[in-house]
Design brief:
The protein is 48% helix and 12% strand. The protein has 409 residues and is of the alpha+beta class. Pfam families: Acyl-CoA_dh_2 (PF08028), Acyl-CoA_dh_M (PF02770), Acyl-CoA_dh_N (PF02771).
Length: 409
């Protein structure tokens, strides 16, 4: 990997902010995909199968290439738009929204790690092939090793929580190098999901996010060459924008889940006729206690949305700095996004849990499927402890401190 030089200053194709026309156009596309996903979302969740057909919908819609450069045939959209798309899909199918979110982040490493002159070949191939990018990057599971051999390296080991790896076209992988000139380096590289020695284990068995294809992958003597490398994992601020990026994607995932739960709960509530026998209301939806619960939830979810939208616009402005980005500026956006992560996690879990209080006992039927929202957010919100996001915000507020750069902070 080349060292950071002046050539890296022209690394990115994102600039400016998303126009309302851009946001509206891509949201319309996402809503169309969401309507198709909604038709059999419960059946697909219960089948617990990898989402091959669902990902084809994303390819056909153009969402798979939303963030890519226009000059190579990509959508040319901004990050604010990508986060809105994730939120829109999560209202219906959070598993598919998660796979797309990881895809956006994984593929963005082309721009975050490579000089502009080296990006064209990667972007042309991924756009023309409509590649989906899964990953095996879980930083708390450092069980992969790249060992030097005559024509490059051989990859061995098992990586857990490899989202999208079993359904994607390419897999972004992190592994430590043993031997040679890169001995001891932790590098990011890309392999073909169909390469010899790549074996998805099919062991994803979670309460929710069942179609996120997040099982383990075993790698056995998988061939890796210099041309597969994107770069070394360092503490260079711009190269590490993937962390605040994925955290904001998570926040929008949780926000979309909460919005979806409220939308279904509203329909269920309006369909009920009789109020509780002790109520003075004529209809169930006019009961003051029901109105109070919905009023509280709508206000809190809308507040999260406002905070998420603000963070998304600021993220685009930070990305546009390229290698001019400082540690302090990166830290500031990470803290900003940590705030959204905190409130989206807590509001989302509470809304998807307590919404049953407003919809009543009949909404707990398995055939209704209102539980899907709670199961999904309860599962994914455990990805990394929200308490440490609170610590991050508190340390900055009280002491002006930023957490060290990592794949979680």
């Amino acid at each position: 990997m080349a060292e950071i030089t002046a050539a890296h200053q022209e690394r990115i194709h994102w600039s400016g902010a998303a126009s309302q026309a851009e946001l509206d156009s891509w949201q319309t596309i996402a809503e169309g995909v969401a309507r198709e996903l909604a038709v059999d979302v419960l059946e697909r969740d219960r089948a617990n199968e990898d989402p091959h057909r669902e990902l084809q919908l994303l390819r056909d819609s153009g969402l798979v290439n939303l963030l890519d450069p226009v000059e190579f045939g990509g959508g040319g959209a901004h990050w604010e738009t990508a986060f809105l798309v994730i939120r829109t899909l999560a209202r219906v199918d959070a598993s598919v929204a998660q796979v797309l979110a990881y895809h956006f982040i994984n593929k963005s490493n082309i721009s975050f790690l490579l000089p502009r002159a080296e990006q064209a070949e990667w972007y042309r191939a991924t756009i023309d092939g409509k590649w989906f990018w899964g990953d095996s990057v879980n930083p708390v599971d450092p069980n992969l090793e790249l060992t030097v051999n005559a024509d490059g390296w051989r990859l061995n080991g098992v990586k857990h929580f490899s989202t999208g790896a079993s359904v994607g076209d390419r897999i972004l992988i992190s592994a430590a190098v043993t031997g040679g000139t890169r001995d001891g380096q932790l590098v990011l590289f890309v392999v073909n999901a169909d390469a010899a020695g790549v074996e998805p284990l099919g062991d994803w068995d979670a309460l929710g996010q069942r179609l996120s294809a997040s099982g383990s992958v075993r790698y056995t003597d998988v061939r890796v060459t210099e041309s597969d490398l994107l770069g070394e994992l360092t503490d260079q601020p711009f190269a590490n924008l993937i962390t605040p990026g994925i955290q904001l994607a998570f926040a929008n995932l949780y926000l979309g889940i909460a919005q979806g739960a409220l939308e279904q709960a509203r329909d269920l509530t309006r369909a009920r006729r009789n109020a509780w026998f002790l109520s003075s209301a004529d209809l169930y939806r006019n009961d003051p206690f029901v109105l109070r619960v919905f009023g509280e939830f709508v206000a809190r979810v809308d507040a999260v949305e406002a905070l998420a939208d603000r963070a998304a616009r600021r993220f685009d402005s930070v990305v546009a700095l390229g290698d001019k980005l400082t540690f302090e500026s990166r830290g500031a956006i990470e803290v900003e996004i940590a705030k959204v992560k905190i409130v989206s996690s807590e509001v989302g879990v509470e809304v998807t849990n307590r919404v049953f209080e407003a919809t009543g006992s009949s909404s707990a039927k398995s055939s209704v499927g209102l539980d899907l929202f709670w199961r999904n957010i309860r599962t994914h919100s455990l990805h990394d402890p929200v308490d440490y996001k609170k610590l991050e915000v508190g340390a900055h507020f009280l002491n002006g401190e930023f957490q060290p750069i990592s794949l979680y902070t």
